[in-house]
Write a structure and sequence with these properties.
Elements: H1 18-27, H2 39-55, E1 70-71, H3 73-95, E2 104-108, H4 113-121, E3 125-129, H5 140-146, E4 151-157, H6 169-183, E5 189-192, H7 200-203, E6 215-216, H8 222-261, E7 264-266, E8 275-280, H9 288-295, E9 304-306, E10 315-320, H10 327-345, E11 363-365, E12 368-370, H11 375-397
Parallel strand pairs: 1-6, 2-3, 2-4, 4-5
Antiparallel strand pairs: 7-8, 8-10, 9-10, 11-12
Protein name: glutamate decarboxylase
GO cellular component, one term: cytosol
Family: Belongs to the group II decarboxylase family.
Length: 400
């Protein structure tokens, strides 16, 4: 079984105070959607919405309250927002006597998969701005170029899941505002800030962006709302600011440790979600997927993945820095990565396994006939040799 604290793939909080755990268990049997039966849950949700609205500087008068809603995670929030954009666009087109059967949405190729689901479920064309090496977020200029009269919205990300980078929402807004003036369109922006929306206000308060206030729950029971309310009251602005600053400091410890090994290129940026995305300087013999796989022997869950088009030739490892990831854990991870790299250096290269493959039919070598192998036979032989070698190493080194 994996250790949630060592699961560095997840953006989701894996630790809360014991008092919060008790609150969750005490309210786990209360159904959040039964608002008449559990009205206090609705009141707590409304308080959470208003706290977040003030955090995001929503334009509210002294006597006004913010309007928001809890959703079953950020995916549902995107589905609801996307539907709202589609309906508003359709109503406007029908009022103008124009066709409304070919809506599209413009995103970067780095968007979370739920955007692809929205497009598929609700019959909206997804127009993706391709990435390129060294630039792994949506290019605002290219995005606005793709906008046409059928575009229901442009989706920007405040905290890409690939490398944590914040997309330039202000530049996108300026460019799109200018295009709307020129064309008479009213194409809006949706900011997907599921990760960065609760980081930017504390670490980068001067960053200009916009995000509709909402809270996300993973289950339809009151415990999620109550736990969120507890966290907001318990920590407050200063508490969250301290947590975010600690995460950023530990991110820098990990980043500097990886750089000192001389083996990795850092893909993530200084400003963004506290995470470290990195790739091997030389992956000609061993790749990032092997590093990820071997780190599991030490208990670490560190994902490896290829970038979306047109940067799919880049492979990346990613470590998300959460509240419970300490400086000690950062130093330990660097040490374990160095151990893995040392072991990989002593393993045979998967793609260079010492198997002689005949190029053209059967050939004679040193008096013996070598039979040409099929691609499948070759792959099976490489896999067998690799597995045998790894098993021998495990017998000698043991498993941590």
């Amino acid at each position: 079984m994996g250790n949630p604290r060592l699961n560095l793939a997840s953006f989701v909080t894996t630790w809360m105070e014991p008092e919060c755990d008790k609150l969750i268990m005490a309210s786990v049997n209360k159904n959040y959607v039964d608002m008449d039966e559990y009205p206090v849950t609705t009141e707590l949700q409304n308080r959470c919405v208003n706290m977040i609205a003030h955090l995001f500087n929503a334009p509210l008068g002294e006597s006004e309250t913010a309007v928001g809603v809890g959703t079953v995670g950020s995916s549902e929030a995107i589905m609801l927002a996307g539907l709202a954009f589609k309906r508003k666009w359709q109503n406007r087109r029908k009022a103008e006597g124009k066709p409304s059967d070919q809506p599209n949405i413009v995103t970067g190729a780095n968007v979370q998969v739920c955007w692809e689901k929205f497009a598929r479920y609700f019959e909206v064309e997804l127009k993706e701005v391709k990435l390129r090496e060294g630039y792994y977020v949506m290019d605002p200029e290219k995005a606005v170029e793709m906008v046409d009269e059928n575009t229901i919205c442009v989706a920007a990300i405040l905290g890409s899941t690939l490398n944590g980078e914040f997309e330039d929402v202000k530049l996108l807004n300026d460019l799109l505002t200018e295009k709307n003036k020129e064309t008479g369109w009213d194409t809006p922006i949706h900011v997907d800030a599921a990760s960065g929306g609760f980081i930017a206000p504390f670490l980068y308060p001067d960053l200009e962006w916009d995000f509709p206030p909402a809270i996300g729950e993973e289950h339809q029971c009151s415990s999620q709302v109550i736990a969120q309310y507890y966290q907001l009251i318990r920590l407050g602005y200063e508490g969250y600011k301290n947590v975010m600053e600690n995460c950023r400091d530990n991110m820098l410890v990990l980043r500097e440790g990886l750089e000192l090994t001389g083996r990795f290129d850092i893909i993530s940026k200084d400003i963004g979600v506290p995470l470290v995305a990195f790739s091997l300087k030389n992956n000609s013999t061993h790749n990032e997927f092997e590093v990820s796989d071997m780190l599991r022997r030490f208990g670490w869950i560190v994902p490896a993945y290829t970038m979306p088009p047109d940067a799919q030739h880049i492979t990346v490892l990613r470590v998300v820095i959460r509240e419970d990831f300490s400086r000690t854990l950062a130093e330990r991870l660097v040490n374990d990565i160095q151990k893995v790299m040392h072991e990989l250096e002593n393993l045979p290269c998967k793609v260079c396994a010492r198997i002689w493959i005949s190029g053209d039919g059967d050939k004679e070598q040193h008096g013996a006939v070598v039979v040409k192998k099929t691609a499948l036979e070759t792959q099976r032989e490489i896999t067998t040799i690799w597995r045998k070698f790894v098993m021998e190493k495990k017998k000698m080194n043991g498993v941590c």
